[in-house]
Design goal:
Length: 232
């Protein structure tokens, strides 16, 4: 028990490779500034390739699920294979395993993914899902991530409540934003703006007040993004 499902990984890679479009892949790699090449699949092609392979999959246990995710992720030769690994993370048969015990795996994917397309998908979905389902246990973890030395872990903490609307924990949002408000990197400044702009759709007065409270600690980019739809 617990070994990776090598057969599934081979079938996934073959399904993706069958739909490769090298010219498109080159353009995607250039656009994404990715060291890892692309096969050239768009979102619809990716879904069509993965559905018949992933649909029937029934991982027998949690260790098999984790090992299969890691095998596909770590040995990926093209970026779409990492997109497929995230689909494995979110597989319907694995929903019961998206709990606090999954956070080390998810953080590993964030740290080794280390680019916005992978990190943002992980932050706003599986990580956010774990937080939403287990707030008492996971909130302290996100507070720790917000002070992590790894940039992408901090970005994941800032973005983990995007889309939560009225379920957003404003105290957690305030804490993760404040922990990174003075970070000089584009990636944190943009993430802060995005997180605040998203919550502004639910509580615009809170976001205006928070932007005012942070004042000059908040970068111009974060401020503009936060107030983008509020006339600020």
């Amino acid at each position: 028990m617990g070994g990776a499902d090598d057969g599934l990984v081979r079938r996934l890679r073959a399904a993706l490779a069958e739909r490769a479009d090298p010219a498109r892949g080159e353009a995607q790699q250039h656009y994404m500034k990715s060291a890892m090449p692309f096969l050239g699949l768009g979102s619809p092609q990716l879904r069509d390739a993965l559905r018949p392979v992933l649909g029937p999959w029934r991982p027998p246990d949690r260790p098999t699920w984790e090992a299969t995710v890691l095998l596909l992720w770590e040995e990926a030769t093209h970026r779409e294979e990492r997109y497929a690994a995230i689909k494995l993370v979110r597989h319907r048969q694995a929903r019961g395993w998206l709990d606090p015990e999954a956070l080390p795996l998810l953080r590993h994917l964030v740290v080794t993914g280390a680019w916005w397309d992978l990190v943002d998908e992980l932050a706003t979905h599986p990580i956010g899902d774990v937080l939403a389902a287990y707030r008492p246990e996971v909130t302290p973890v996100m507070l720790g991530w917000a002070d992590d030395r790894d940039l992408w872990t901090r970005r994941a903490a800032v973005l983990c409540q995007v889309g939560d609307k009225a379920e957003t924990d404003a105290g957690l949002l305030r804490a993760v934003v404040e922990a990174n408000a003075e970070d000089p990197t584009f990636w944190l400044r943009k993430a802060i703006g995005w997180a605040l702009r998203d919550y502004a759709r639910t509580d615009p007065d809170w976001v205006r007040a928070e932007v005012d409270r942070l004042g000059d600690r908040l970068s111009g980019l974060s401020r503009r993004e936060a107030l983008k739809h509020l006339g600020g």
